[in-house]
Amino acid sequence: MDENTSTGKKDGGRGAPAARGAGRNGDTRLLPQRARELMMAALGLFARRDFSAVTIKDIAKVAGVNTALIYYYFDNKEDLFRATLDHAVERALENYRRLGERHSDPVDLISDWFDNHAELSEPIRELVKIMLDYRTARTQLRVVDDIINLFYDEECRIISESVKRGIAMGVFRKVDPEAAATIASTHLDGIMVRSMIHRDLDMVAAIAQLKTLFFEHLGYSAATRSGGPARIANAG
Question: Structure pTM?
Fold first, then answer.
């Protein structure tokens, strides 16, 4: 029997240990490569269909494996979904954190954050769709709710801290940093959802327009920036 289709404790002949439910107790990046490949197959299906419409058999067919291999790594569809979403969110957050590490200038960080959404619009749109479908599904899992909350909390933290820095530097006017971050995050999600309804929407242009409006909300104009951050009056 092919080891990839058995329920034995081997992974494609590599002798990797079983890792069922591993993502619940640690980083999904530590899962064996085979398990991550299954998550990527599942991610594509969850992005194209409703959560409730996807079956283990569907995922196995797309991945080209027997369902037994999926159950070798994951307890059930919900466990696979949680691990898949956890992995996708962690990848997105890693990218956000790299932006934060690369920039000390709040204007550059926020600008790159918007540009990042334009460049990675397709995978981000898939992630938003999966989270939206999950919210409308009958199955609700607390651990999945925690993953979704982590994504938005971390996203808003990065932006709000940049806004705070900009205010302290005199680059931005005085605004509520958390409210500003929520505005940016919410409207970006709106663009992603709109693109699912109107496939001809130019997401790059829409995100660029939102970036301009967001900087206007912060009282910042790139036209006034010369040789460093533009200083503005901190209006209340």
Answer: 0.72
